[in-house]
Amino acid sequence: MDTARPQGGAAALAEPGAGPDATTPALPAGTAGTAGGLQQRPAPSPGLRTDAELSDATRDDSSLRRFLRGLPGIDPVGLEQRAAGLATRSIKKNSKLQAIDLAISMVDLTTLEGADTPGKVRSLAAKARRPDPAQPGVPSVAAVCVYPDLVAVAAEQLAGSGVGVASVATAFPSGRAALAVKLADVRSAVDAGATEIDMVIDRGAFLAGRFGEVFDQIVAVRQACAGRRLKVILETGELGTYDNVRRAAWLALLAGGDFVKTSTGKVSPAATLPVTQVLLQAVADWHARTGEYRAVKPAGGIRTTKDAVRHLVAVNEVAGPAWLDPYLFRFGASSLLNDLLLQRRTQREGHYSGPDYVTVD
């Protein structure tokens, strides 16, 4: 597991407890456009801790169930009020361009449609490498995310670019298949060149209380990843309560997931700010207890620059500035990049360019 603090995370975005009119200080230079270094691991954190309770939690099914059901409950009203408060924050005008570039560098540019073709993936990969060919200063995105049968196409197009190749797997989006089928799915993607695997948990098993079964499947998938980073999709829109979201996040962390990810994008609601806050708090608590850094990826429904900035504010407030880095936070999105590019042009040129400015995927 990753134990290292990424270098150059953005500075604090807003003072805790600031009012609705609060604005953020400038983001420091060098915080965005780091996609080319995503595979690098910084120096280990000093004093890595072993948490006895966490070790005991995975000893057997009853210990795991006791740990997950013993997690503190979440006050939904308080959580949603905090999310609403964070959503009112803004970034100072002279910092918006840096915030936009940071968000671009965090995008997992995604196409997960039945009608996807090699040609569409090639076009998407070209856009991932150079989101705006007319503006060479625009950073590359973090990764391109596709189905396993199109991984080889993406890998060929992205070779040497520093942009990751992410593949959904494990019977996406339902997660309902035999373990052997799920593992074959993962191995196929890895063999084709995937650098990251986005798996889905079996929500039916989780909701039925079969936590050990879900844990064992994540462990098996992690082994099949052969060192690739593993994102565990919880499909939070099907979990029913914030308490279940917290339990699922901790289950994924205990099983070795590098990321906890909200959604497949195929279920509504997908990524919401309150749910993202729950995941951010989970990885922050995990770091406090173990010294290890784990990542968060909200996916689905994040379409505008305003949405992205609200999430960046939440990242800073809940997890901390170290997570303002594409190694530890991503956006799973298809249309978000276009709006970020439009708003970037607006910030640079002082006028709105219109939707014809960007390419249509």
UniProtKB/TrEMBL annotation:
EC identifiers of the protein: 4.1.2.4
CDD domains: DeoC
Basic and acidic residues composition-biased segments: 50-61
Enzymatic class: lyase
Positions with biased composition (Low complexity): 1-32
Pathway, per record: Carbohydrate degradation; 2-deoxy-D-ribose 1-phosphate degradation; D-glyceraldehyde 3-phosphate and acetaldehyde from 2-deoxy-alpha-D-ribose 1-phosphate: step 2/2
Name the UniProt record assigns to this protein: Deoxyribose-phosphate aldolase
Single Gene Ontology MF annotation: deoxyribose-phosphate aldolase activity
Keywords assigned: Lyase, Schiff base
SMART domains documented for this protein: DeoC
Catalysis performed (reactions): 2-deoxy-D-ribose 5-phosphate = D-glyceraldehyde 3-phosphate + acetaldehyde
Highest taxon listed in the record's lineage: Bacteria
SUPFAM superfamilies in alphabetical order: Aldolase (SSF51569)
